Structures are given as C-alpha cells and as structure tokens.
Amino acid sequence: xxxxxxDAVRRQHxxxxxxxxxxxxxxxxxxxxxxxxxxxKQITGVEALIRWxxxxxxxxxxxxxIPLAEKTGVINELGKWVLRKASEQxxxxxxxxxxxxxxxxNISPLQLQEPNFVEMVKQILEETQLDPHYLDLxxxxxxxxxxxxxxxxxxxxxxxxxxQISMDDFGTGYSSLSKLRDLPFDTVKIDGLFLQNVPINxxxxxxxxxxxxxxxxxxLRVVAxxxxxxxxxNFLIDKRCQEIQxxxxxxxxPFNKLKSFLKSKIVF
Length: 268
Ligand code: C2E
Ligand code: CA
Ligand code: CA
Ligand code: CA
Hints:
GO terms for molecular function: cyclic-guanylate-specific phosphodiesterase activity. Helix 1 (6-22) crosses helix 2 (62-72) and helix 3 packs parallel to helix 5. The chain is α/β, with parallel strands linked by helices.
C-alpha cells in the first residue's frame, strides 16, 4: 500500500506545491451533476464537483488533490472558492428561470472545524444573494472526527439560516450510525458503492433497501448516488427511494452545459 513509484511521488510533490497558487491562477472549475426526484422526474438540484485543470498535468480529479489540500490546510480557501463559485453560478441559473434548483456543495470536515466557518458561509450568501434555502452542504466522512458540541452548534446555526445539511457517502463513513444519531441531518446520500450490481448482488440490494428504509424512518430525504442502470433505478423506485444521482441521469457537466440539460426532457 505504502509503496509509491518515483513518478507518483514526484507527481504528489508537484500537486502539493502548485495547489496554493492554483486558486489565484484560476485553474479550478466546478462541474455540476443533477439529482432527480424519481416520482416527479423533476431535477431537484445539482451537486458541485471540483476539477483542476493543471497547466502541465492536465485534468486532476478531486480524489487526488482534496486529501492533499486537507493535509496542507489549503482546503479552507479551496472550499470557500467552490462555495462562492457554485453559489454565483446557481444564482445565475435561478435568474434564467430555473428558480427551484438547489446547489449541493461538498464540505470537508476540516472546514467545519474552522472557527469562522458559519460566518464565511453567511458572507458568501450575502455576496452572491443566493437564498439559503437553495444551499445544501454535504458533509463527508473521510476523516475521523468526533461530532462534538461545537460541530452540532454550527450545524444548527446553518440550519436556522435555512441551509440543508446532508450526510455524504452514507453507509461507508467512520461511525455513520452514531453520526446519524448525534447530528441533525436533513438528507442522507447512500454511497454509490452499494449500488454496484443491484439488484443482482443480493447483499448490496439488501444493504441499499435497509439504508433507504432507515432514512425514511428517521424522516430524512434519501438520495441514492452512483445510479448507472435502469435496473438500479427500478429497484430504488420499488424500495421507495425518492431521489437519484448518477451516470444514468447525467455525468457531472461543465456550467456552460447546465442550462441546456435543465431545458431538456428526461428520457431513459
Ligand atoms: P462524492 O461527493 O461522493 O461525489 C460523487 C463522485 O462519484 C463524483 O466523483 C462523481 O463524479 C462520481 N459519480 C457520480 N455518478 C456516478 C456514477 O453513476 N458512477 C460512478 N462510478 N461514479 C459516479 P468526483 O467528481 O471525482 O469526486 C470525488 C470526490 O471528491 C467526491 O465524492 C468528494 O468527496 C470529493 N470532492 C469533489 N468536489 C469537492 C469539493 O468541492 N470539496 C470537497 N471537500 N470535496 C470534493
Ligand atoms: Ca458529495
Ligand atoms: Ca457521495
Ligand atoms: Ca465519495
């Protein structure tokens, strides 16, 4: 596991060194992946997914640089940049007439630990004039953090402004269930990992069915991620999962393609 080739090590070093300046150099872009309500077939929102167009390395996926941004602390500035960019662009989509599109933004647990996090979010909503009811913050669990009183207070404060809070990668994270118990999430997003080969894979099918039921019983919005096939969709409809996201509906798309996607009729 810990054995990296020389090239991989060099690549990591370049990425680490360049991260700091990539924001000012305007090398990041936000892609958007739509979410759909399976009953109404309406697009309920889009998730903001960051990409890095590196001048020499080309497109770098977030799984490669987000952990490094967390390690170096750049994640705070980067997270702020994404939130501002996504809020701006969704606000402009609202102006274009798609006024009920929600924006989901990924938040690193490290950002949530920043003392000024809530203030930062408030400031960006004021700057961009985005209605807080259309903002949804997805909290990922890639880092072992204890849900302490401080985090709980911040989440409550954000929710009192009208912002929604989602648990990302539901089912995979570090002590998912105790987080679900301790923090007042509005939504759970079932990780795409569990959708693999559903319904043929009985274990995965059982896990997905159970996670949907758990979310429903806790009165949470339930979103299934990584939906790629019609068979998965039918299974989810049958198990009464309300919303889906995945390649079946659309891959993440650049902002300039979002409007035409929203205008198009959804057919599978
Ligand atoms: P995530 O938040 O769980 O996002 C879902 C990932 O699954 C995305 O990968 C998306 O492109 C991919 N995906 C969507 N539908 C399908 C599908 O049907 N099949 C498959 N195989 N994959 C699908 P992406 O964009 O590479 O992002 C990877 C991860 O990087 C995200 O996982 C998230 O944890 C992190 N990330 C992305 N953008 C940000 C950001 O702005 N801030 C933070 N903190 N993390 C981010
Ligand atoms: Ca996410
Ligand atoms: Ca996820
Ligand atoms: Ca994930």
